[in-house]
Amino acid sequence: MGRVRSGTVGRRFTILYASGFLGSGSVLLALTYLMSGGRVTGVAPEQPPAVRPGLAAAEQQIRDLQRQLSEVHAQQNHRLLVGSLIALAVMAGVSLLLGRALAGRVLRPLRLITAATRRISAENLHQRLAVVGPVDEVKELADTVDGLLERLEASFVAQRRFVGNASHELRTPLATMRASLDVAVAKPEPAAQTVALAGRLRRELDRVDHLLDGFLVLARAQHGALAGRSPVSLGELAREALTVRAADIAAKKLTVEDEAHLDAWTRGSPALLSRMVENMVDNAIVHNEESGWIRIATEHDDTGTRLVVETGGRVLDQAGVDGLTQPFVRLGADRTGPEGSSGLGLSIVAAIVAAHGGHLTLLARPEGGLRVGAALPTAAGSQGAAR
Q1: Which of 195, 223, 251 lies at the terminal end of a domain, its last residue?
Q2: pLDDT tens track for 275-328
Q3: Hey, how many other C-beta atoms are within 10 angstroms of the C-beta on 42?
Q4: Total of domains in the chain
């Protein structure tokens, strides 16, 4: 019999069944007491003015017997009342136990359905509850959930098929347009307008390509299976991202506080985790102020491994910060981003963190600026391992 948690339907069923048992027992005991509660009483006749001594003694003996019988009956009634109260108390305990047992029995199929549904995720949508038994409300519920899972599986399959085909179908025309621009510019003595137009088109094509790449990574993180999991050092990924963006950091005169440690390990897809760290660093650079600062730190303990990226700046609204994990959501006009910004940076970070079983936190710092923290499961036994 499963445990019936407080505040649940099981608790209400337990109280309902216990109340029914206890009420029935109370009525039964009350009827028993009333039916056995008649007292034997006697009224002594008035003594006539003149009676014989022998008759008076007999009447006195009868009165004594009636009094004794009344006392015995009163004691029996008292014992019966005490016994009824004890039986009622015992019945209250038994009613709770029986109510709990019946509630557990009634709710057992629902608990099995709940547990099976929780085990089904995006990676095993092919599983079904497949509840057997008579066609009742519980089986109808299970069949409805199976139908929902079937529709979800079809939707996920279509999504993954799109992700697999989009990269080829959409990148091909982009490559064709790039080649056409190169051919036009490569002609002898191209017109100045042609060169200028080709430059603008290349920049726009770069933005489209960057946006397309962001969409594909986001879709892969949200709906794709994470193959090739291996230990990854978040500290090493952070230092690599800082090295790649060193020119942009210098151009904005940013001060970097590097507190990333190489022993902060997690396990997952190296490509996706690298993209996650790159996006966190890019967000800190792009949406920072001139001569600002960036702090990057890693932490690890028994609960997990964390990568934290902090920036200074103006005071932000926490309600607006909470929505930054949604695609194309930015804070104000100053966060529209430069050319090449797709508006998917933190959305991709959130999707990658969730795909690895982690949690992303965005905090508007009271002093101004933003704190982005990615908490991921620690890779057991990977400290000191070579990547």
Answers
A1: 223
A2: 899 999 999 998 888 999 999 999 887 778 999 999 988 888 888 888 888 877
A3: 12
A4: 3
b or e along 173-206 (b: 16 or more beta carbons within 10 Å of the residue's beta carbon)?
eeeeebeebeeeeeeeeeeeeeeeebeeeeeeee
Reading the block at residue 165, the tokens are 């085909």
Full-prediction pTM beyond 0.85?
Answer: no
Residue of 243, 271, 238 lying closest to 372 (CA atoms): 238
Same domain as 303, residue 170: no
Last residue of a domain, one of 223, 256, 283: 223
Q: Give the type of residue at 115.
A: A
What ranges in the chain are assigned the alpha helix state H?
Answer: 9-35, 53-119, 137-186, 192-223, 234-244, 246-251, 270-286, 318-322, 345-355
| 329 lies in the same domain as 269 | yes
pLDDT along the chain (387 residues), means of 10: 54 77 75 61 47 72 83 78 78 79 78 80 73 79 86 79 71 84 84 85 82 74 70 93 92 92 88 90 90 91 88 88 78 49 78 88 91 88 45
> What's the burial of 298, exposed, middle or buried (CB within 10 Å: 0-12/13-18/19+)?
buried
